[in-house]
Amino acid sequence: MKYYLIVGEASGDLHASHLMTALKEADPQAEFRFFGGDFMAAVGGQLVKHYRELAYMGFIPVLMHLKTIYANMRLCKQDIVAWQPDALILVDYPGFNLNIAKYIHSHTQIPVYYYISPKIWAWKEYRIKNIKRDVDELFSILPFEVDFFEGKHHYPIHYVGNPTLDEVTAYKAGHPCDFSSFITSNSLCDKPIIALLAGSRKQEIKDNLPQMIAAAQTFADHQLVLAGAPGIDAVYYQQYLQGTNVVLLFDQTYALLQHADVALVTSGTATLETALFRVPQVVCYYISFGKVVNFLKQLVLSVKFISLVNLIAGKEVVKELVADQMKVRLIRAELSKLLTDKAYRQEMLDGYTEVAQKLGQPGAPRKAAEIILQKLANNKLKEKCNKDKQ
Known about the structure:
Helices cover 53% and strands 15% of the residues. By secondary structure, the protein is an alpha/beta fold.
């Protein structure tokens, strides 16, 4: 069968690539065409647009690139209709993907499947109307979303587990922890590591990395190692790293987390990855005009937390320093507690155990692929029955 996939960022590229692999295993004749990234391209198929050409963060950047965004949407719609896939699979990225879903639902008979559901429980809850109207099947990777979609909005979904759990579990199985080998291969010293995960977009890095470094570099008995984000050139990082002792590593985020003592992490999938590697962390997310945003957050956001760790746990497991709370002295104080207070550190690790238990067992891509194939088979059967009746 033919599958058209759309992702808009690095984490979506990774998750979609694993779904594609699962689909390929179950359907050896699978053909793929996609708006995606390097991980998806490695699985096979035709890359139409790279996600780096799609992702704009913040009101002003979006406004400045509206012409490009609309051109990409137009191209995407035309390409899907021309290729006529058996299924359209959307991965997160709701601003773009829900627009595509609306068009495809109203202009074609192509079924729309949404893998990694939009986080409308956090904000823009009104989008549930679009989802109910335009999405045939919704796949959730967060356990608390079941109650939100099914309990609150009476819209049945499929909770398939969390692909990040699959990815971390698979990495650990294939990469035994060897600190000596890790530091030798990366020309590091033998001090314990403070890992810095400053986001996947330039704006996030600009807003978060300088304060992260300022807070962490005071711990002289540790070395600072920064995980370079896919798609961000090393040259961009250098403006923030000059005059510091921070080591920049690309394509080794999981290896870094496997060997880190503590971590400073921006909100997003990285917070969950850090928890699954059982690294105590501080969630740092600076926003300009922080106090104003903090006030607006109380009015707009429907959730208490921004990190996946706390959202899944339903309580504060990790400290979140957001907006006006994102200050060097507060980051430094939290780091100090994690490094010196064994009881405090263990409490966080116990919280990580609860989070892992709530996620369930690995196998999210495989489960999603099985459901997609079953739904497509049912559609084919219905089409055949309708033709026979005629």
